[in-house]
Write a structure and sequence with these properties.
Elements lengths: L2 H55 L9 E7 L6 E8 L4 E7 L11 H8 L1 H12 L5 E5 L1 H11 L3 E5 L3 E4 L5 E4 L2 E5 L1 H9 L8 H17 L7 H10 L1 E2 L3 H16 L7 E4 L3 E4 L2 E4 L1 H4 L7
Parallel strand pairs: 1-4, 3-10
Antiparallel strand pairs: 1-2, 2-3, 4-9, 5-8, 6-7, 11-12
């Protein structure tokens, strides 16, 4: 056989061996990759199984942690700072109104911080004063609160600690007797602006009672606050976004379901003393309240 034919056959045979070795190498690589992927898959499934098992045994509505927000009623000279704390594990909520003159240090009141630096810093200072985390703030004027009460349509049932005599929008003297009163929106506004209480701190007690009354009356199984919150969100200045509300919506619904008797929320009072025009809360007394349980 001529040499060049033998040479071509040898080259062809060598190439076949190279192809075979290449296919074997490729097969080994693919086998290693498949084994690696399979191992990753089974390990990930093993990690998920306990979580899925735990989820299947959990209740449909998960109980979120205690959450506190600060409602700021922003009207110059009539500021109110109402802490709202939800405690879903106990099916309870609490409100507490800090006086506008509450001492925030450096000779500044809580109202002064609000006027100078706005709602976020006011909420931060209230958190420091109370020694409690405050997740969010909600800021409304008294006029916006009147608009919201009008939207709720049923008014607000509130127990007044003493009779209130004031000049209404028609410039006529009006009287709200002591005891439980069904207040229309304009009466709520008049009450929040009223400063003729026998005890000046009574205005803050009434503010906390008002917020508690709204929650007790309207956070009910048949009236879960969802649409109401959406309407409120359009009125207020707040750092609460829709994703914050959605994350807590199931918990709010569970609290509403537990509020059949209308006693979900309890207003608390803060005691203290005034020095140099600033209010110093009695923290020892406050720490005995349910807020710190």
């Amino acid at each position: 056989m001529p040499f060049h034919f033998r040479s071509q056959r040898q080259v062809a045979a060598a190439r076949r061996r190279q192809y075979i070795l290449a296919f074997i190498a490729l097969g080994l690589v693919l086998a290693v990759v498949v084994c690696w992927l399979a191992t990753r898959y089974y390990l990930s499934m093993a990690d998920k199984e306990p979580a899925e098992s735990a989820a299947s045994s959990a209740p449909v509505t998960e109980v979120a942690d205690t959450a506190s927000s600060l409602l700021i009623i922003n009207e110059r000279g009539k500021e109110r700072f109402v802490l709202i704390q939800f405690r879903p594990a106990e099916n309870k909520a609490y409100t507490l109104s800090l006086p506008a003159a509450t001492d925030c240090g450096n000779g500044q009141s809580l109202a002064a911080v609000l006027r100078k630096s706005g709602s976020p810093l006011a909420a931060e200072q209230a958190s420091k004063v109370l020694g409690l985390p405050i997740s969010h703030y909600l800021t409304l004027t008294i006029e916006q609160i009147e608009t919201y009460v009008n939207y709720l349509e049923g008014g607000v049932s509130l127990n007044l600690p003493e009779a209130v005599t004031y000049i209404n929008d028609s410039l006529v003297e009006a009287v709200l007797p002591a005891g439980t009163q069904q207040l229309a929106a304009n009466q709520v506004g008049d009450l929040l602006r009223y400063d003729g209480w026998s005890d000046p701190q009574q205005s803050h007690t009434v503010a906390a009672a008002f917020v508690a009354a709204v929650l007790n009356q309207y956070m009910q199984p048949e009236h879960r606050f969802g649409g109401d919150f959406a309407y409120l969100a359009n009125l207020m200045l707040s750092d609460i976004r829709i994703d914050h509300y959605n994350a807590y919506a199931d918990t709010l619904s569970a609290l509403a379901d537990s509020n059949g008797d209308g006693n979900l929320c309890e207003p608390l009072t803060v005691q203290g003393e005034t020095q140099n025009g600033l209010f110093l809360p009695n923290m020892e007394q406050l720490r005995q309240t349910a807020l710190y349980d």
